[in-house]
Amino acid sequence: MKKLILLACAAIFSFLLTACGGNDEQASADGSKEITIGYFPNINHVAGMVAEEKELYSKTLPGGTTVNYKYFPDGSAFMTAIETGEIEGGLVGPGPAMNHFTSGAKINVVAAGSTGGTVIMARKGTNIETPEDLKGHSFISPRVGCTHDVQFETMMKEEYSITSKRIGGTMKHVTGKPATYHRLFKTEKVDAATVPEPWASVIEEKGSGEVLVDTKNVAYGQTLPAAVFVTSQDLVENNPEMVQNIVDAHKKATKFIQDNPDKAKQIAIKKIKEITDQELSPSVIDNAWERINFTYKVDGDVLQDFANSSYQLEFLKEKPDLEGLVNTSFIQK
């Protein structure tokens, strides 16, 4: 009798372990896996759109793996999803990735997504003709301390000695989704914007604003990854095979973009329409494409320099050390 009770307890204990245990990825009843990849509806994240449209993650991951996708309006929401295990990985701006890493988030940058694509726009009718004219005006970015914000504020501080009110300057800073910037310009809610593509080209085409500083002249405009592929250190350590499969799919998506730009542009138009309900013209996509370089290669030294700028702008409380953030082993295979 005692033996039967012990066996029953062991069976119950085993069941509880099975029910409560688990990895970052979810397992279904038949043993198949389920993962979620995240990205933004920006041109810098076209690799995510291509990978989804062509089902590249499903092709590189083990058979039976279900791949879901989640779309994000800003880096803070994305990083929270990584840290809580809501998503296994995806594309995000380097600013949020570095900020969360220095705050203790256990994440790894395992690849880049693109470089370039940030444009400083001025609303028509403001008489803002040069960056010096921005003193006392308002500007918008997706989030406080996001990649585009740091690029813009670094340029303004270093080249024009103009800063935001947040650190004792004169510029008023507001935040909002890049897809709304054209409307905010039309309604005169903001005077300038630090804009990721394709939304800068949308503003250009619709005539609500003009380019004040183009990509190549913004701080870190051509060297900084505009998007990085991030996953959790836990996944890297405990399931490197899955991370390698995910990165392999990302590399294939990037190669597809490089080799088939016209097809990649059509995918971008389709996915952005699905996600944002805004259909972009081919001319907008063509214009945005000229400002971006699609690559999966990532340089940790550039990220460290950018993080130092974020600290100097007081987005970070302590001088950052990004040792351990970047892991390039997966893109080298």
Automatic annotation (TrEMBL):
Matching InterPro entries, A to Z? ABC_SsuA_sub-bd, NrtA/CpmA_ABC-bd_dom
Q: Principal localization?
A: membrane
From which residue to which does the signal peptide run? 1-19
Q: Which Gene3D superfamilies match?
A: Periplasmic binding protein-like II (3.40.190.10)
> Which domain of life does the protein's organism represent?
Bacteria
A Pfam family of the record is NMT1_2
Kindly indicate whether the keyword Nucleus belongs to this entry.
no
Q: Which UniProt keywords apply?
A: Cell inner membrane, Cell membrane, Membrane, Signal, Transport
UniProt-recorded name of the protein:
Aliphatic sulfonate ABC transporter substrate-binding protein
What does the similarity note say? Belongs to the bacterial solute-binding protein SsuA/TauA family.
> Where does the record place it?
Cell inner membrane; Periplasm
Q: Where does this protein have coiled-coil stretches?
A: none
Output the PANTHER family linked to this UniProt entry: ALIPHATIC SULFONATES-BINDING PROTEIN-RELATED, TAURINE-BINDING PERIPLASMIC PROTEIN
